[in-house]
Amino acid sequence: MKSKIYQFETVKDDYLILFKNKVRVHLSEIILLEAEENYTHLHLQNGKKITIARTLKTFEKALGCYQFHRIHRAFLINGKHLKSYNLTIGEVLMTNNYKIFASRRRKLNFDEHFSVNI
């Protein structure tokens, strides 16, 4: 069975609006966003995964002011779902127990932000 691919519309009132206002996802439900070529997968708290036909860069711009952090070319994480962060090796553990390693290039910015907001 083929999964449905949504179109991103906008961010409004702490909701991600998809497919002409028919689907709304509250930002607090999003654990992380994962890039796959020209698609982005939203990983949600309830374990579901939503695929959207937009690049991760689009979401980085739209969600930057909502505590979402780009830690790798393929990952944008919700800072509110950060369970732990190992500064030494750059390993991020999310609330869904998903482990991600921050890229060398993005690790420095994330380290600075993380150490300021502890």
Care to describe what's here?
With 118 residues, this protein is an alpha+beta fold. The protein has one domain: Beta Barrel (OB fold (Dihydrolipoamide Acetyltransferase, E2P)), CATH 2.40.50.1020. The protein is built from two helices and twelve strands. A six-stranded mixed sheet has the order 1-7-6-5-9-8. A three-stranded antiparallel sheet has the order 2-3-4, with no helix packed on it. The longest helix has 13 residues, at 104-116. The termini are far apart.
Summarize the structure.
The chain has 118 residues and is an alpha+beta fold.
What features would you highlight for this structure?
118 residues; single chain; three-stranded antiparallel beta sheet; 2 helices; globular; alpha+beta; six-stranded mixed beta sheet; OB fold (Dihydrolipoamide Acetyltransferase, E2P); 18% helix
H/E order of the elements?
A: EEEEEEEHEEEEEH
- Figure out the total of helices: 2
DSSP strand tally: 12
CATH class: Mainly Beta
Alpha-carbon Rg, integer: 14 Å
- Strand arrangement, major sheet: 1-7-6-5-9-8
Helical content (DSSP H or I, runs of 4+): 10-25%
